[in-house]
# Entry
Amino acid sequence: MEIWRHLWRNPLTAAGLVLVLLLLVAALLAPVIAPYPEDAGDAAHPERKLQPPGRDHLLGTDDLGRDLLSRILFGARLSLRTGVLAIGLAVLIGVPLGALAGYVGGWVDEGIMRLTDVFLSFPPLLLAIVFAAMLEPSIDSATLAIALSWWPWYTRLVRGEAVSLRERPFVEAARAAGVRPLAIIRRHILPNAWVPVLVQASLDFGSVILTFAALSFLGLGAQPPQPEWGLMISTGRTYFLDYPWYVTFPGLAIFLTVLAFNLLGDGLRAAWAPTGGGSGA
# Structure
């Protein structure tokens, strides 16, 4: 495939793709490759509390003696799950609204886009914090809060695509044949708008994971003893000066994950740009 060749041809994009694949493998195989899988839960080992990185614990241990490498590997599962669900929900909300606004136009377009503008007037992280604070702190609440703060980007993106597509000959032909508007949206608008949506989702994935970590850091997302990266940093910040590995390695996991998806997203946008897809929100 030409797109895959383009991705591998760019060194930065290839590096991002490799990192994403490694992250997926680590998340899927965490129960197998984690040296101490029981440490992903509420296990406690006071005798090995806050041990530095070494042969038995490659990344050291936390304040309860749990292996940090094992918890980071299981944390990858939580982060990827949250990213997929949050973006999936945002797409399910935003894409149909954008397609409806762009194709129908008129007061429908005006109403949807004014609501979208209200949401877009606030930073996504701030909105996510507000929504998460209104719910009981949990991973599911954080996922929903992120989705509710992210859908407007997809609405605006797909609305622009729909405005362009509704004047195309194949859409006009369907309209002249008496096909209903909702059927035209489902059969012609949405299938031709998936490329920019996919590109935007790949660019958003790293930001969503970072937002999830921020919510957990603030106590609005994952709760102890869940092995979430932001929560690990929140717990370990009081030990940072004397035991820096406690915070450094979860922070590095977040950094590499966000970097990987940003590099991959930029590569996908560049790969699809010549074919007409990939307008950003």
Q: What stands out?
A: Residues 2-36+67-275 form a domain with the MetI-like fold fold (CATH 1.10.3720.10). Confidence is low (pLDDT under 50) at residues 274-281. The chain has twelve helices and no strands.
